[in-house]
Amino acid sequence: MAFLTALGALVALLAAAYTHLFIYKQWTLPCRNVKGPEPVSLLFGNLLHLVRHHDLAQQMADWAKIYGHTYRYRVLLGKPRICTIDPAAINYILSHTEIFVKPSAGRKYLASFLGNGLLVAEGADHKRQRRVLNQCFNQQAIKDLLPIFYDKAEELSEKLLGLVEEDPQNEAAPTPTKPEGIQIGGRKIDVMKYIAMCTIDIIGLAGFGYELDSLSGTKNEMAEAFKKMFSSFGPLAIVQALIPGASLIPTKNMKDRRASLATTERVGRRLLAERKAAVHADHVESVNKIDVVGKDLLSVCVRANMAADLKPENRLSDKEVLDQISTFMFAGNETTSTALTWTLSLLSRHPEIQDQLREECLAVSTPRPSFEEISAMPILAGVVHEGLRLYPPVPVLIQEAQQDTIIPLDTPIEGRNGQMMDHIKVSKGTAFTTAYSNVHCAERTWGTDAASFRPSRHFQAKAESEGKGSEASAGGVWGNILTFSGGVRGCIGYRMATG
Ligand code: HEM
């Protein structure tokens, strides 16, 4: 009898939950008129479809073709999510950071290893941090880092040439070369792996004046710690970050992460103490031996944070400065190496552009051109721009509304009831997926060859109209594209990544 009563109560509870989540909530949604794919699972909505698709951006582009520039799909427990490639909607989202923030679950997860660094901080904390950190990323600060970029580029080049000459039995790629791919004087190399080593080293030196020795292969405790910290992703790690108390479960991941956090904090504190002492002593030569002494982002940050004209309430705490070290490594490393790898892949598929670029590079008289000389290389600029347009390393971003709001649309959409809508109403808690990679392939802006790699489009557009595409109105921080996002939360490191 007791069992039947319990079963009855459970069924009633499930029925009530179902009615609330899937009937009442869906019916009262302000955005219910927005079309979209039917959910394939009650529990997971359309998520499984997205996760299983080999190309998430392509799936989103396919839905946009069917349902319009702005459409609705569902995630866990029927929760609505809106995907948009509409420039006016994206501009609204990026410029209203008081309304749109990172979803709290994602933020909590990032905070579990990045602390309250710039990527995680919100509101007044973010504003205060950004004001100080902007000084680390201005043009002069990045120019000062150029020698590090060249030193490491040369080390990478030597490493790759060394691999070509090495014994072919030592595999330099995860899979052996196919017989038809064997070339005299050539070698199959996992280029992304070595580029990633190079960007790790660059962020270490440029970010906080620390040699991480990734390219040289020397064992390094800080490099190991970052590697473990950022590779401990996975469903269990996410659950442990999100469910209070779950982090106490002593999994291997959790132990590794704790040990890694302890290492980055210990080394970080030492670096911070050295920088502060150097600023106090006003003779930065004692900081370390690299020839851009005191020019790394951490030094600039410490100096800016200790400036006499900065009010005490606007200064960053030591912990906040420390949190930027992991933040720079997390935000700046894989993004840059992914972008470079895709750009090289594009060049390998377009040998004619490779030839033009090589010719442009060989015409420069010095192996270490200045910032100004690099800026005067149109083919290089076009190649970088196209790589970042076609393969944005962060292809989608998710932002959640903190309050009810109305989103304007550049391209009206047809609602489920057949009426055209030039805006959509959303309630607090509705999340938006802005599919940057799809915005970048809009034929309306980029022409019928939007999906093609054509570097000349950038210098032609510049000459003709300084690029007045729709993306300009979407508010990207760099080059009329959204690769570095936009608004006050746009990528602070875009100058470092693009020059
Ligand atoms: C090709 C390379 C890069 C790409 C594609 C890229 C892209 C982005 C994007 C899309 C965002 C917005 C993220 C969000 O709103 O959640 C962002 C933010 C950020 N990026 Fe980058 N990034 C790159 C390189 C770098 C570098 C080199 C650094 C620094 C060393 C850096 C540091 C940051 C930081 C600190 C933020 C947070 C900014 C804020 O919230 O105020 N990024 N980046």
Automatic annotation (TrEMBL):
GO terms for molecular function: heme binding; iron ion binding; monooxygenase activity; oxidoreductase activity, acting on paired donors, with incorporation or reduction of molecular oxygen. The keyword Nucleotidyltransferase does not apply. Its cofactor is heme. Pathway: Secondary metabolite biosynthesis. Keywords: Heme, Iron, Metal-binding, Monooxygenase, Oxidoreductase. Heme binds at residue 491. Pfam families: p450. Coiled coil: none annotated. It comes from the Eukaryota. Belongs to the cytochrome P450 family. This is Cytochrome P450.
